[in-house]
Amino acid sequence: MFQILKDRELAPNIFEMIVRAPRVAQACLPGQFVIVRCEEDGERIPLTICDYDRKEGTIQIVFQIVGAESYKMAQKKTGDAFADVVGPLGKPSDLTEMSPEELQKKKIVFIAGGVGTAPVYPQLKWLKEHGITADCILGAKNKDFVILEKEIGSVSNLYVTTDDGSYGRSGMVTKCLEDLVKQEGHEYNHCVAIGPMIMMKFVCKLTQDLGIHTIVSMNPIMVDGTGMCGACRLSVGDEVKFACVDGPEFDGHLVDFNQAMERMKLYKTEEGRLFLKAKEKETHHGGCGQCS
Length: 292
Prior knowledge:
By secondary structure, the protein is α/β, with parallel strands linked by helices. The chain has helices spanning 22-27, 68-75, 100-104, 117-129, 149-153, 173-182, 197-210, 243-246, 257-267, 270-280; strands spanning 2-11, 14-20, 33-37, 44-53, 58-64, 81-82, 84-89, 108-113, 135-140, 157-162, 169-170, 190-194, 213-217, 233-236, 239-242, 249-251. Strand 4 and strand 5 (58-64) form a beta hairpin. The longest helix is centred in the C-terminal third of the chain and has 14 residues, at 197-210.
């Protein structure tokens, strides 16, 4: 059992938990995720690791209530436990594999939207620990949905923007990025965008015009987390990839967002899942090694 050491509600229906998981904490790196099962017979929920403490043997997860299983998770309190926490899974951020010389050449901006703010934080923290202070645009619908502002502000040059202008700057994250580049003289050659699919799509359209290499995290489309279900199949350039086993991070300018969003809609129904399986045939599943 994996004990919950701390729980708090960050925003309406968005929760943070610190969980004792020593082996995961020892091995994980920014960009990776875990699979959590609330109960022995519960569903598998992939969640990005928001933070970790190797000394204490803990990891931090952030999740939003979107269905029955995440609702059950939210009912857990400090002192309770999860049945399973499996990980770390997925590939770490490319930034963690770069040499100090490569990192020093990067002019990095992170764009975090909604719950996507959680996986941005460990990357910013890791960069700060390695002498790099990146810029970060944190976007939310309104002031009530701004999360982890203090934490992210301590490890980055932070710009908060809200869609309705109720806090920070006014407008979408794309407007903030465009203002920073075109009106305020900021220069970037590397962008990491994590948030809702539609946000990442339009960030990539803008960064392509601005000539900024962009990485996106496709964790929003993961379901099973091991490549067995085929939910996170996507096209990256001319290749078929699976977010859970090949990612979750990819070159955003090569991702077919329209296809990925359409698959998400289809995958929500049993009829849609059967249609996708029949249409995609042997490419429907990922690299789990058990679906031949």
